[in-house]
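Amino Acid Chain and Its Fold in Token Form
===========================================
Purpose: to set a sequence beside its fold so the mapping can be learned.
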Amino acid sequence: MPTTVIEPCRSLTSVNLRELWAGRDLLRLLTLRDIQVRYKQTLIGVAWAVLQPLVTTAIFTVIFSTFARFDTGSTPYPAFVLSGLSIWMFVYGAITVASMSFVNNATLVTKVYFPRLLVPISATLALTLDLAISLLLLVLVSIYFGVEPTTYLLLAPIFILLTCILAVSLGIMLSALTVRFRDVKFLVPFMLQIWMVASPIFYPLGIVPEKWRLIFAINPLTGIIEGFRSAVFGYAPDWAVVIASTVSVAVIAVVSLVVFRAMEDDFADVI
């Protein structure tokens, strides 16, 4: 009979891609389960994914286009805000759900072995349905306001991919930290509120003085949102900001894997 030897990972940043691929069916099942649980016994179901960005966009439009009067150039302010909210709401929801994924799946984690990375990844993938609905809504709003697509639109999938990598990375790290330190679940909502204000979601990057933009771009959402908007609305992005934020995403991904690998062995004992 063949013998299977389970050994600890030798590197804190390495990922066993073969093991993850072997668990793809489990990933699919966990993702579908999370989607079903998310909308089970809700009053209007998936319509929440439409109402939330629409209502938030309407509120921001009334407040900031009337009083603050941010200059968004030729871009209609409702479409401008919705483009930022589509990215932000996905990241916010994914981090919130993924950070509690191990605690919510404690029974599964303690009873059977499987690649632990699948748990926060599946929680994040479940939110891609909301992201797809928000992006479809953005397309409809852009058409309504007469936004014409350009060749820059081909760059949009790159920034969506960066958004997913950022959400998965932070979800992985925070899910591990929540297992060890339960007060992390109280810290996450507070930090997300600060992060929202520090990101150019409802205001243009142009209001930030040019000498401070690279520092501002340490926030990975700065370059992602700016790049996504440039792709959708057809103008050249600030490549220095985009590159700086991309580097931040890469650093966060590496740090997240290090934190996760360092804590993974104790999950079943302390959860």
In short: The chain has one domain: 20-270. The mean pLDDT is 86.
